[in-house]
UniProtKB/TrEMBL annotation:
InterPro entries linked to this entry: aa-tRNA-synth_II/BPL/LPL, Biotin_CoA_COase_ligase, BPL_LPL_catalytic
GO molecular function, one term: biotin--[biotin carboxyl-carrier protein] ligase activity
The organism of origin for this protein: Thiomicrospira aerophila AL3
Pfam families per record: BPL_LplA_LipB
Keywords, in A-Z order: Ligase
Matches recorded under PANTHER family: BIOTIN PROTEIN LIGASE, BIOTIN--PROTEIN LIGASE
Name of the featured protein: BPL/LPL catalytic domain-containing protein
Length: 260
């Protein structure tokens, strides 16, 4: 473990050659410091994503998790998940000429294919404080094992190496989160959404008014028209047979796919 004196927010960092999961590790050590803590690994053999799905990666892909101590009420801030996705996407845009996009709820797409995913978890540390653990996995090479998906798989091409990318993403994400986090500390809560709808629309994988499939865990599929996100970060789908003609999707267990 070492302390990175990044201004204005220093953070602790754990670097491993191999680990079961960077997020699992941080959840085990949560509460030992109020400073941000970064964990990275050259390989993880039990990586996981949304709904506990396995996250497959190659050696030396980007695998990192960032932990910050936060007031418990900060975890319910509207648009937090999408705010984090946009921050990470913005960092990647500075190191590549590839097209970087975000896909609801918080996936990273590069040149039209899935390249990364973000998982946000909460850990209780005491009666009124928690830790937020942000796991981020990104392909720096194409997967060696073929996994059947509804879209192609891509990877980031950058002049930075894995550790440089991790430090860049972590430093920028800490800076982005500290302003709303400090506001929550002083005011007790944040009563507005962190999501900038215009920024999301500019980077959105889906086009406005695009026909998409809404896939539920039960296997049910609904075809609808993608209307973007509301301020709370919910995806809005137009479907004439639904109440008020609008489906609001707020669970990562529900998958949005292009209609082909």
């Amino acid at each position: 473990m070492s302390l990175i004196m990044s201004k204005p927010y220093p953070y602790y960092i754990f670097n491993f050659r191999e680990l079961d999961s960077t997020s699992s590790f941080l959840k085990k050590v949560a509460g030992f410091t109020s400073k941000p803590v970064l964990c990275s690994s050259a390989y993880q053999h039990q990586g996981y994503g949304q709904q506990g799905r396995a996250w497959c990666s190659n050696h030396n892909d980007l695998m990192m998790s960032l932990m910050l101590s936060v007031p418990s009420k900060f975890l319910t801030t509207s648009g937090l998940s999408q705010f984090i996705a946009l921050s990470l996407a913005s960092s990647l845009e500075t190191v590549t000429d590839q097209l970087i996009q975000v896909k609801w709820p918080n996936d990273i797409f590069i040149d039209g294919g899935k390249a990364g995913g973000i998982l946000i978890e909460a850990v209780k540390t005491n009666h009124d404080e928690s830790a937020i653990v942000i796991g981020f996995g990104l392909n720096l090479s194409l997967p060696l094992v073929s996994v059947p998906l509804d879209y192609p798989v891509t990877s980031l091409s950058s002049t930075l190496d894995r550790i440089q990318l991790i430090n860049l993403c972590a430093t920028n994400l800490i800076k982005a989160l500290m302003e709303p986090l400090n506001e929550c500390l002083y005011q007790g809560q944040i009563d507005y959404s962190l999501l900038n709808i215009i920024d999301w629309q500019k980077s959105d994988y889906f086009r406005q008014n695009e026909t998409i499939r809404v896939q539920y865990p039960s296997g049910d599929v609904i075809i609808g028209t993608y209307l973007g996100l509301d301020q709370s970060g919910e995806a809005l789908i137009y479907n004439p047979s639904s109440p008020a003609n609008i489906i609001k999707v707020n669970s990562g267990a529900v998958q949005l796919r292009r209609f082909v």
